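Deviation from plan, reported transparently: S-adenosyl-L-homocysteine complex.
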Amino acid sequence: MENINKMLLEASKSIGISLSKEQENSFLLYLKLLQNKNKTTNIVANSEDKEIIHKHFIDSIAIPPVLHTLFSEDKQNSLLDIGTGGGFPGIPLKIAYPSLRLILMEATNKKVEFVKEVVRQLSLDNISITWGRAEEFGQQVQYREKYDMVVARALAELSVLVELAIPFLKKQGLFIAYKGPNIDEELAMAGKAIITLGGEVQDIIESNITGIRRTFVIIKKVAETPVKYPRRPGIPQKRPILEQKE
Ligand code: SAH
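Because the crystal trials were delayed, the predicted structure below was used instead.
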């Protein structure tokens, strides 16, 4: 146990976050819940301590420094995590930045049930969890254009992702996509979709933390999203908004 604590504290220190005892305990309990659940249901590919701490916890909270004020106490910004799976990156972000108003969206009920259990056991407040597809919620008034920030990790190609994410943003809100290395081509392919949805690329930031190479694509919503987007479930993936096809 001593080792796990140390690993967590050192890794978070390396990204400039010093965890309180309460935050440390939340991460450790979350780790245990993930490992228990993973015995019967596949939530993470590899459930060793080190893997979960680095690849999931630290990777989730290692957002670029330019974003730090938006996640901080005085802003109380709302954050939507689409396709959260086992809670990533939403739950680690909420533990690290407790004043966020968080909503988690997930299509698979089993994962929703797990995440609800995590939220209950960690006694996290100001979180709601919705079961369903982003394409459907994105057309509902109570969700559309309501959030200051949207995040997504390992959900889809950027050209598809922006159709799922941008409709939820308020004007001037930010979509923060957790992407891998070498995304030039993916980014070029998404150009038309980004503009069509009312977005504009604001920043592209690469990082390499605990051996994980990431590119954060930060897109600002500068115009209202046309009402026809998002299209019906499955359509954004099947017919992404691409230069040559429309
Ligand atoms: N973000 C998590 C999980 C990635 S796997 C992580 O980084 O570990 C992608 C998840 O998105 C799956 O759990 C899948 O059920 C969910 N998902 C896929 N398409 C979705 C959609 N259109 N709306 C909501 N959730 C979706």
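Residues 63-238 form a domain with the Rossmann fold fold (CATH 3.40.50.150). We consider this an acceptable substitute for the interim report.
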